[in-house]
Amino acid sequence: MSRMSKSYRLKARAKSVWTERSSYFMIAPFMIAFFIFTVIPVVAAIVLSFTDFNMLQTPNFVGFDNYKTLFLNDDIFIIAVKNTMILAFITGPVGYIACFVFAWFINELPNKIRAFMTLIFYAPSITGGAYFIWTYILSSDRYGVLNGVLMKLGFLDSPILWLADTDYMLVCVIIVQLWLSLGTSFLSFLAGFKTVDTTLYEAGAIDGINNRFQEIWYLTLPQMKPQLLFGAVMQISSSFAVGAVPAALCGNPSVNYATHTIINHIDDYGGVRYELGYACAISTVLLMVMLIVNKVINKVLVDD
Amino acid sequence: MKILRMHKQLNRSHFGNFLVFLMLAVMGVFMGLPLYYNIIQSFKPVEELFIFPPRFYVVNPTGSHYSQLFQLVSDLTVPFSRYLFNSVFVSICSTGVGVLIGAMAAYPFAKKKFPGKDTLWRLIMLTLLFSGGVTALPAYIVKAKLGLINTYWVLILPSLASTLHMFLLRQFMLQIPDVLMDAAKIDGANDIVIFRHVVLPNVKPAWMTVMVLSFTHVWNTGSAGVIFKEELKLLPTALSQIAAGGISRQGASAAAGVLLMIPPIVSFVLTQSKMLQTMAHSGIKD
Asked: What is the ipTM of this complex?
């Protein structure tokens, strides 16, 4: 009896696969590219992290050696973890709140100014390598914008080496990273504000909501939950992947590893030393951190 | 404070409005000044580039850095037109084909029921949780093993599988009323016909947005690290190579910076309202 129902179910399933064959046909090109360039690299990173792969010789299985070295004998990695955490826990939340607050403010502007301000705020994140401008602004001589202005105003006597003095390097990277952070989430929030049902505001005013903070807390936020979740995902994954900016501003390796991040560490071992197995172990660790943080934050936001 | 929209004057104090404007102005200067300064730098004659204190305006604007830039590019072994062709070719292939493939996949995920759909969708959503940067190294190994390095393919193929773009298209398609598709089905249309004549016209804002995002991504990523043959490099990579030529090229490098930011900014300005329409559906519903 149970065997019959099992084979029946199998047949039904095969039949629905056949009737939906056009669906499979339509997703096939995307799924093939997705598997080759997104799924396989993740699997490869995990598998190769247990080997001494170096691109030239056949990899040998080395068990957890890479992870042991990483956590027990690699002081630079610990510095990289520390810097990445500082960057993520500052630029992540601050960038997220900035996206929301400025989307909110810009949404209050009349149409024409709104489009212009949107461009001003969104432009840095889409102009790719534009952060190289900051090397002029933070340049170490008196022709650098920041040094020049501060010296002219009398705050400084001699120029500061913003990008080579360990006291300032990480702060500079944080500022540039924040400058770049009003990206996809910002646009998503802005669009979210536009779809909020504003008739609720009038009803709310009658019900005793008497300032704009209560309005945003009780009326707007609940309506924008889907966008807020999407923005959190975007913001978290980018704030843990900081690497290009510190490398461009301070170099890789930077002075005293003051702005060395996990991504920089991967590039160092993967791109420079060709210790790919080891570099894959670093990638795997960062991947797990991103997934866990994302899952936790998602839970917090959904439960609220 | 007339500038604020009148119907939202409810619950708005003048002091609050003032604070909002103040914050927008301060942040606006912080956001806009670096790009503005780059533009100004590119028009400064050499004697104005290195003066103390640095100026935020230009006295005698000159186009000489731009002509120097073109001079430097044409002195390379590969003609300028080749870099331009590479960029145009790669951009068209990856955005055009990428959007088509993404939209084709988004339709069944939005509107069809088929065995395995939920599992595949969960997998796709899982990869949204980490950025591509973290798997760049193993992805490079995969590309190298497939023999894609130093070919156009390495620039085109990976951009065909953007989960973010597919996600945005799918979220937008969820809004299409099922009645439209059912009506077409009764008229005897198959899925391909429905996709082409019902779905695509109804998600125009979404595919335009994804095209812009995809173009911006391809333009900004360039070909550094995967293309080492000069004749296959993209224009942005060639320009930044020149710009990296040291302090004597600061003017030319600023000019290169301005040229590089024009395409992404222009494409955003032209499609801003479409992009906001699309992003309105970007939310993740739990």
From this structure: 0.88
